[in-house]
Design goal:
about 35% helix, binds dicarbonimidic diamide, 9 helices, about 220 residues, alpha/beta
Length: about 220
Amino acid sequence: MHVHAQPFAYEFDLARTALVIIDMQRDFIEPGGFGETLGNDVALLEAIVPACRAVLDAWRDAGGLVVHTREAHKADLSDCPPAKRLRGKPSLRIGDAGPMGRILVAGEPGNQIIPALAPLPGEIVLDKPGKGAFHATPLHELLQQSGISHLLFMGVTTEVCVQTSMREANDRGYDCLLLEDCTESYFPHFKAAAVEMLRAQGAIIGWTANSTQLLEALRSA
Ligand code: C5J
């Protein structure tokens, strides 16, 4: 398949491509969650949900592999380095009780993926203790077992977990496409800069495209 992308066309084979949805969790996206308690405007992130849903529906209809990630730590925080927990002066730290349960702890209400993008049985769901989806997870092995060579990225936030995961994937040899209208940051200028730097220098980390361009490719396949 052929997607009109930047800096040039992105080619992929459906059977060798996975859709990776990064951290579309209640705590980052919904009012009253962790993101909002940090002083962020979550409406910015909520706005991408319809575009993400349209891609997810089309990808499922096409029979493509879906991977969902959650930024999540074990209840005893044994997988949360003190350097991550203690950095800065947030009003709530990882593991503290927040409006939707303990912050970034697996199984808590706020740690769940938002209902509109909830995983279906059979889809891969990975809890990741880091910002990158490959760090301390079996993602690379799972993708290799499925013969995957290409990854389509959506999710939040663009310059943190999405960008980190895309860079990790690129170093592991995957051809990556970021869907620009299906990713967002609490800081729009960070998103713009991340998108630009990922595709610079002849797609040094990967390609970017609008979701309508992917949907068009799937329709005409
Ligand atoms: C993600 C974060 N998911 N911003 N986490 O980007 O801390």
